[in-house]
Amino acid sequence: MAETYRADNLGSLLRPAKLKEARADFHQGRLSQDALSMIEDDAIFSALERQKSIGLDVYNDGEFRRAGFQNDLEGAVDGFVETGQPAVTRIWKGPGEQLEQLGTRHVVGGKLRQMRRLTEAQTGFLSEHAPGPFKVTVPRPNQFPAIVYQPGLSDPVYSTRSDLLADLVSIIKDEISALIQDGVPYVQLDEPRYSYYVDPNWREHLRGLGEDPDKAFQEALAADNTCLEGARRVGLTVAIHLCRGNNQSKWYAEGGYEPIAEALFGSLAG
Questions:
Q1: What is the pLDDT of residues 221-263, one digit of tens each?
Q2: Per-domain residue ranges for the chain?
Q3: Rounded to whole angstroms, what are the CA distances from 145 to 106, 148, 157, 158, 259?
Q4: What is the pTM (predicted TM-score) of this model?
Q5: How crowded is the C-beta side of 258, counted as CA atoms within 13 Å?
Q6: Burial level of 96, CB count in 10 A (0-12/13-18/19+)?
Q7: Which residues of 140-150 are buried (b: 16+ CB within 10 A; e: fewer)?
Q8: What angle do CA 63, 143, 1 make, to 5 degrees?
Q9: For the chain, N or C: smaller number of CB within 10 Å?
Q10: CATH number of the domain located at residue range(s) 17-267 in this protein
């Protein structure tokens, strides 16, 4: 049976200033990949030591090799294009004034083709250096169609968001299978978008995209269950992270889970 973990951090830790500056320099061409990797290594070593010092049961790398929790997919899969303008505009809610943050500028403009593993380098480093059991996080496929599907660019290769979701499911499912084969003891799948199906504003947003939010919810469940096929292995812990898009004490989805709780928790595999 899987280990029982009493406490662990979500997966994404606050990036040290030095790491943020290094990634910015890398994207501006002022820093090599090798130099960036060395700075990432140092930040991860410090994060692992901090987790050990406070007695956590399971370790992670803070997602320090990613610009964001979902960016591994865009970096490892061909078919994304830079638009120069945001695909989605998010309004963050919370203390003080509402904060408007522009969404991703990368959208699907070609058939998705995986070029490399999403998390292989992260997994190898943790396998070698983590002081104990470690976990690796993976974004859920349902995270992407609403934000990377852009009519006029995406529909020549994917007629609908559902068609795009099917290819994303295949990629994420294969990554989970690879993590299991690597012997990763704890796999966490991050799914912030389930909260959209209970938020009136986001449900209306989905309708504006031509999507039925209730049908989209069922489709998301089916996609997640497909990704988790075969994930029940001796010694493996599988977790799912649900949230409302939390960021710096702000959020962009609201509402209790009661309308979807029975279907979600009663039928989600894992």
A1: 999 999 988 777 767 898 888 888 777 777 778 888 899 999 9
A2: 17-267
A3: 12, 5, 13, 11, 22
A4: 0.88
A5: 2
A6: exposed
A7: bbbbbbbbbbb
A8: 65
A9: N
A10: 3.20.20.210
